[in-house]
Amino acid sequence: MLLGPVARHPSSSAGAARHPTPFPRSIHPLSSFSQLRGQASAQRTRHVAHSPPASAQASILRAAHDSARQHGTHSPVSAAAAPASEPEYSPTAAPTPRPPDTLRLVKHAARGTRRLPPLSRKCDRHQRARQPSVCHPGFSAGTGNAQPVKESKEERNKRLASEKNRCIAARHDSPVWPLDTALKAEHHPLWIAAERWVNSTQAPDGLTIITTHACGFSKESWRPVFAKLFPLLEGAEGKQFGTGEPLAGDAPHINEIWFLEDTNHGVSVDLNKGRLGDALCWDDSARELINFVENVLPAVGDEADEAGFQLPFELGGKSAQQAGKTPAEGLKRKVVGIGHSYGGNALAQAAASRPDLFEAILLVEPMTVPSLVNAGESGSPLTMGALKRRSEWPSLAEAGNVRSNALFSRWEEEQFSIWLSHYLVPSPSGGMELATPTWAEAQTFSEPDAPMRGWECLPDLSMPVGFLMAGDETWMTGEEVAQELVWRPKRSRNERILDASHLVIQEKPAETAASIGRFLRTLPSWDERPQK
Asked: Comparing C-alpha atoms, which of 502, 522, 30, 60 is closest to residue 250?
C-alpha cells in the first residue's frame, strides 16, 4: 500500500512484503526518444515563449481564499491594479483540512509575469451572489457560457469537435515572443492566487516549500497532504527516501508553505477576469515560479501579519547585487519545490533554468514525457476530454453524487470534500459550476509539445530531484518511459505507490505525505548513501 521500498504498511499482515523497490536504473535508452529529441531540443530555445504573448511581470499569490499581496516583474512594467479583496465563493461543505496548530494560514495576492492580448471581444462575468462566473467568447461549453437548451448527441459532438479544433488552432497560431519583445508588451499582466501556511517558529535553516498543482485541479489539493505531514515529521525515527533504510538526524524544520494556483485555474481565473487569452504556454508557468521565488519571496517577511492582501514586489536580483550578493544569497530562504503533473513540468523547467533558486525539487507524476500526448493525429484526447467534462449541477448536493463515479471513488474523503468546497462555485443559473472552466482546462491541455520540453530539461537539473510515481503509469505513457524518466536527472531518487494512479495526491494523501517526509529528511545526506 505504501511507497517505494519502505517497510510494509502497518495495516499489512506480518511477513507480507507490500512495497516494491523503486524504479531501477534503466539500462537501455528509449528507442522512441531518439526520434523526438531533435524536436524537443529545438523547442527548448523557446523557454521565454508566451502563448498569446506573455511578458516578464510579477505574479499574484493568493492564499487559499483568504488574503493577498502584490509582486512585480523581471523588468519594470506598470503594475495593474490588484483586486481589493479575494472572491468569496466557497460553498458550504464538510470542513477542509487546516494547518496544524503551529502553522497559520494567511491569504495573499501578487502580480504575475505573463501579459496577454485582450480577448477578441469583451466578455464580462455575470455577478451572482458572491461568485462571478467566467465565460469565453470562443467556447459554448464550460463555465459561464450558454449552451443549447436542446441538442442531439450528434449536434453536441459536432459542437465540441468544433470547439476543440478552435482551441488547438488558437495555440498553434499563437506567436511565440522572444524575451525582448515580451518585455515591451503593454497588455495587462495576469495574476496567480496562493495560500501561505506560516510556522509560528522560524528557524534560520528552515525550509520554504512551494507547491504546484495538476491541470484541472486547485492549490487546495495539497492541504490534506501537508496536514498529515507535520505529525509524521515529529516521529522519532526517519527513513531514507528511495530505500526505506533507517536514517539518523533531526526532522527538517518547515518555515512556510506556499500553495500556488495557475493563472487559468480556480481563484486565479476570478482574479484574471476579462484578461485570459485564447491560448496558453506551459513555459509561462515555469517563469511564474522563477519570478515568485526571485522577486516576491524576498519582499515577504516571516510574520504572517506583515503581508497584506496584495504581495509586495522587489527585484530580487537587483536587491542582491546592491548588497554584494548573488540573487540566490539575497533570497535568505531554502526553497524546495513540489509539483504534481502539469505543475511538475513547470517546476522542472523553472529549476533547470534557475538551479540557484532551488535547494531541491520533488516531482509527483510529472508531465515530462517524450511524447506528443495530445497529438492531433490521435484526436487531441486531453483537449476533448476537458471540453466534454460536466461543468454544472443544479445544487451542491447533486454535485456530491459524482462521488460514485470511477474517478472520484478512488479519492480520499478529505480530497473529495475539497472538491466540493473549492472546485465548485455558484453559477449564474442558480446551481453550481466548476471554478476552473472547462475551456480553461482545454486551453492548458492544448499545448502540443510542452511535455517533451520538460523531458528534455531533466538532465539539466543539478539539485537533488525526487520522483513520486504511481503503479499505473498510463499518464507517463508506459512503464519503460517512467523508468527512464526518473533516472534522467543526475542526482535522482524515486519511490512508487503501486496501488495509485496518476492522481496520487488525491487517492493517497497519507502515503504522499510520508514520502515527502522521507524526501525532506534525506536531503542533508542525499549524495552520501547512493540508492541501490
From this structure: 522
**Structural domain range at position 168:** 31-71+137-525
Rounded CA separation 514/228 (Å): 8
What's the structural domain count of the chain? 1
Nearest to 56, CA basis, from 292, 320, 326, 333: 292
3-state helix, strand, coil in the chain (%, to 5): 35, 15, 50
Provide mean pLDDT across the span 449-471.
92
Query: Bridge-partner residues for 208, per DSSP?
Result: 256, 335
More confident residue, 22 or 362: 362
Give the domain CATH number at 67: 3.40.50.1820
In a domain, 16, yes or no: no
| pLDDT-derived band at 451, boundaries 50, 70, 90 | confident
pLDDT digits (tens, 9 = 90+) for 111-141: 554 443 332 222 222 222 223 334 444 444 3
> What residues are paired with 108 via a beta bridge?
194
Burial class (CB in 10 A: 0-12, 13-18, 19+), 324: exposed
| Total length of the chain | 532
